[in-house]
Batch of 2 targets.
Target 1
Amino acid sequence: MTADVFLFWFLAFMTIVSGLGVVLMANPIYSALSLAMTMISVAAIFVTLQAYFLAGVQIIVYAGAVMVLFVMVLMLFDLKHELQAFTRGRATGAIKIATVGILSGLVVGAVTIGLTIGGKNQAEVASATKAAGIVDTTRGLSEALFLKNVFGFEALGVLLLVIAVGTVALSRSKGGTHARD
Amino acid sequence: MTSMGTTTFEVAVNLIKLVLVFLMMVQLVPILVWLERRGSAFIQNRFGPNRVGPLGLLQLLADAVKFLTKEDFAPEKGNRLLFYAAPVFALVPAAVAYMAIPMSVPLKFNEYTFLIQGYEINVGIVFILGISSLAAYTILMAGWGSGSKFSLMGALRASAQIISYELALGLSIVGIILLYGTFNLSEMIHAQQGIFSFNAFGHNISASWLPNWGIFYQPVGMILFFAATFAESNRLPFDLAEGEAELVAGFHTEYGGFKMLMFFIGEYGHMMIASGLMATFFFGGYSIWNLTPQEVYQWCFNLIGNEFWAGAMNSLLHFLSYLVKFGIFLWIFFHVRWTLPRFRYDQLMDLGWKTMLPWALANTMITALIIFVTSYYVL
């Protein structure tokens, strides 16, 4: 077992355990912190795949900014009701068991597929990545985003803006804390 | 990230180096605490700690013993797991980010080359900014885990401040990244060595009396970056997180003894990262005024005549140069703390969002425009 393989299994284990934590923890704060942990583990997996820029951006944007806001908002709430609602009742128990079932199915599937890929020649995979022209990931990423696919990239930005406007419009229409009436 | 090495010797040295850089960070903290207390006393016309040992230097040792022997308590209404985890996590981002800062020219030994830093990572800036932004979690964990109003208010203030200033911090160095065309800190320092010289409109412009440092290209970026790092490390004039007058001590109100000390080490660690990055981005990193490492190496070689020892001396000289710059910025951190009063919260947010962010954006756009025009047109 080489260091790379060990690193992969360790990080994969961390990702799955913290991912399970997100859905299984009764306390929303623990869930949010587990999600942050999942994102950091995924960033570490990116590092082992030599996608350094992606790893850095993953940490800055998701773990460093988005999840901090989540945790901040959660801490402002009174979480006692949430805790009660998610520690009792058959419905939540059923959801938890179902989640575990789906996740374990995913794990089994990943392992089976991973074994079939692992049977392939490693050199073949390496030459395929080289043929795809992946050398400098930061430069490659910027060229793909701002030269080759600039229209799609900008269009996605507009789409996100539309989503944001739509969310505000929906939240103001009926009921809700920001309702107009 | 370069691999840890191929032979056992190389891997062993690289692992020892990791421990050494971490110890360097932790061991600097008591010295900095002493400097800060003596310095503040000097500024305010007091004595400061001067009873234990010569110049009060052994006060640190006495403090460490006191911290270790204090009672270890946790608030009853708090969340024990988060309460105990927070100080430990406070150390991690600071230590991990600090290790990625290069401190001297690589040392050559036989066929090996050892970098004088914990490890090198190719996207150094993105990595350091990302890792140090995780510090917001430790503050939130401490504030919420303490189960007290003061702690929670302090934590919310501190994390809101860190998130707000992260934007200005990130944008203020985009100009530098555009200028050097790299995320790698070592390459950035390499570009700043020697005398002031750049190409514009197809001509080379140089001045032999100036070093080729980033501050001469990005003065606005330098000011914005330094101000934002003050906010990031929760130092005065941005220490609303503590706000002794209204919040007792902010997110670490309920902490005492060694747990408190760990928060301290984390805060000083962030100051050290800020000082190291200031030196790296704007003051040529470890490079010596107007000289390239090759010139210094040649001088050492003429003096000693042995390749390895000349290289070692070269590394040592550059390390000293780095330490001088590092120390100057740390001293500015101390001096500002005992000079400026605290901001009001709305002033803090105004400064972050309405002043520094637009200035950083304008700096980025103007830098990009100038780089494009000067490299595209030939006069």
Target 2
Amino acid sequence: MTTENTGVRKTAGDDTAAAGKPPSVRPRALAWQRRRASAARFWRTYRTHRAGVFGLAVLTLFALPALAAPLLTGSDAADVTDAPGAPLESPSAEFPFGTDRFGRNLLALVIRGARVSLLVGLLAAVLSVAIGTLIGVTAGHFRGWYATVMMRITDWFLVMPTLVLAIALATVMSRSLLTVVVAIGVTTWPTTARLVRAQTLAVETRPYIERARALGGGHWHVMTRHVLPNVMPLVLAQTTLIISSAILAEATLAFLGLGDPTVVSWGGLLQDAREAGAVSAGHWGYLVPPGIAIAVVALAFTLCGRTVESVLNPRLGVSR
Amino acid sequence: MSLLDVRGLTVTYAGGAQAVRGVDLRLDAGRKLGIAGESGCGKSTLALALLRLLPAGTRTGGEILLDGEDVLAMKWGRVRAVRWAGASIVFQGAMHSLNPVRRVGDQIAEPILLHRRATPAGARKRTGELLEHVGLPAARASAYPHELSGGQRQRVMIAMALACDPRLIIADEPTTALDVMIQAQILRLIERLVADQDVGLIMISHDLAVLAGTCDRLAVMYAGRVVEEGPARQVYEAARHPYAEALSAAFPRIGDPASRFAPRGLPGDPPDPSALPSGCAFHPRCPVARDSCATDDQPLRAAGPQRRAACVRVADDEREARAAAGTAAPHGEPDSPEEARRTTP
Amino acid sequence: MTADAASAPVEGTGAAGPAKDGPAARGPRVRTATAYPRYVAGKVAGAAVSLLAVLVTGFFLFRLIPGDPVKFMTGGRQVSAEQLAAYRREFGLDLPLWRQFTDYCGKALTGDLGTSYQFSAPVIDKITEALPNTLLLTGTAFVLYTALGILLGTRAAWRHGRLGDRLGTGLALTLYSLPSFWLGLLLIITLSVGIGPLPGLFPTGGMESGGEEGLAYVLDVAHHLVLPVVTLVAVEYGQTLLVTRSALLDEMGSDYLTTARAKGLRDDLVRRRHAVPNALLPTVTLIFINLGRTVAGVILVETVFSWPGLGGLFYQALSVPDLPLVQGLFLVFAAAVILMNTLADLLYPLFDPRVGR
């Protein structure tokens, strides 16, 4: 269902290529042509969803300064010892968001924080979706006890309080960004695994899989050449949605003091603010920028993810 | 006065699809009318339109006189009162048409209580009677739909349709999802109930053979119109419209081995109701189409005693017949749809 | 009248065909007296396996620590060799791993979760002390956000695609994207500390002001409860709303709703009696599966509002870090979620006759 737009068509080219070493590059070229066409079709439909376009615009707005952060803020923006202003200054022309508790420029810190939050969010989501896809595809392809055991594990992880598990992991491992990525990645994969497995089961009932087997295609061939291209659209949508929760999880871990203390992140800024007594002092200007940044980026990824989902599978999408 | 008199009914969906394009039908109490056609021909839309069950935004025109009262002109409160009490529907695919998580007894009793036909205790008793009437033990009232077989569920649907003693029952593909043995049982049951209770029955199906065996009269629909109408046996065995002919040939005839070896299908698909072909809507698929069919729309015209058909060939035949009989009637007058309509019983 | 639009099947587009492969071929399934007990046994066994898995995870997770757990616990302070050895004995770290595991399992099953390093008190005592407070906060918030989510989700589905639906769903998605701790901090600043001329309306934290008795005490606790509950409800109701909405939209196309309308039921009765009860069945399962997320919310909200519950305790344990306490709380949180889910599984067949019979 999901793949009717994109996946099925392109496998036709792959099929010829795989079945008996193509004499020319034509099938390959054909496959690429079809891929381009389906991408164009995807974009045409995506464009009609206002929420998705809004999300994409917001993400661009955040990604550009994050990428250009070293140019915009200077390398010493996060330096505690050589801060440009006095602690907890109010917003001014020089410091549009004011300063933090060490007198650093809060705007510069939020821009720098974007790098960490986005990077960790992306990496954690990729790790999570990779694990989920691996388990989902194999549990769908190989039946029997392997699938049973895998799905039991998945169900167990599914009901587990994910953040508690991630916190426990982050507690016992050393404080670093990698720890945060791993802690989030290994705890959030079960939904992906379930979705991918369901899709794999659906794909494997199709006749061309049988044909591929009859032509001598092994497990590896079937999974990588036929199943994987068909679950990719689903995986794409899932990645976008998981980035959103990964960014929230990263902020949470940083707020609980489990992040990397050497880098600036949005969650870490909020922890700083709380420790500096910004709450009881009513110093809300310190709290608002990082919090808004987290919320807006998480919302933007959610909107994009829901749009991608609904474009690829109209039965599942935004309307629902 | 007829039980049901449909005049010039048109249904246009919100998207612009013309699902029903001017249908005239009449049905008297105790009679059985079959409506046949492929999926997408508008026959189920017609069934839903009779009780105004179509989605909001759907435009409906014409008149639907149920016991002389126009359903389309009623206030909503009156429509709800007429629903089930005046006319009830046996839906296709009873598994989906019954609420999966409520006991079938409660679902049968629901309209009885709603239309204030009985007290709760009385409704329970009536439910038991209805179930026994359709050949199920009264104790099955406490079963859930998934605990019943397909045939049993269809019996429950029929019992439910009878709950408020309606004057008209509309059966929309009542036997489609059932195997042949059960199908026959359900058809006999419907026939018996109609005969016993003197209600009118409209039966909708894609299976012309089933309809011919059950109904008195038969209307064949194509692209939102009735293209042939007449006594069931005659329409089935000697259709005048090429579409009706193709439809009756599509099912093997019992006792006619020849038809089994030469099954005739119809190439192509029914037209998209939002982009109908010009002229006669059937002409792109018609095996005997002429050039004029692409431009001239054909109205229903008299095609023998109590029969009507919408085909240019029928007009020719009638003209020849008349010429042979030497009664040179002025052209057009007896062919008008208005005239043809009056000839139906 | 408007629900006609949402629930009626669309014919004439070729969507409805005669070739509906109904489940007619399937024979009747007769309820048997042993089916429900077997279902219960299966679910309970599954829960037992899950709990065992939690126990195993808890054990190995806290032995993954690179280096010496005792050194980790003492936080690199100057500790004499005898003290280290004493700690090792106390935590049983001088025993072989398998003995440690069996000891740990045996103790955990009898409720002995070790001794808190930070409070020098049995972990289980700290937990039972804080548990009622957490139950009060979580229970109140759970009831409210579930009710709110279902109510608003149903309304959104009825008004599907219209302005009300888009605004409601948009707001739910936005609140769902907020970090709960941040929302809590903002609420404290605006409503407890007060902004500008606005006085603080609610206490900044804790569960009671102290010194109150009887009704005054109850009101005082309720006063303290407001902001934490509002925060939790705000970030959690969105999920319930979306789940309810999509379940109801799924249900809206069902044929049995057309049957119900054909019977002459008013639209609101069609929804109340037929559509909503059916849509709530899958919703309930998902609400319980999502409880894990609520636990995370509780930890953060209790931390921010200094609520003396398990979440606040977890934060205190983390900042030391007090490993026996972290481990014990991990077990409690995980076990609680598994138990709630099992309970939901066991109650489910009472509402859905298709399951477990």
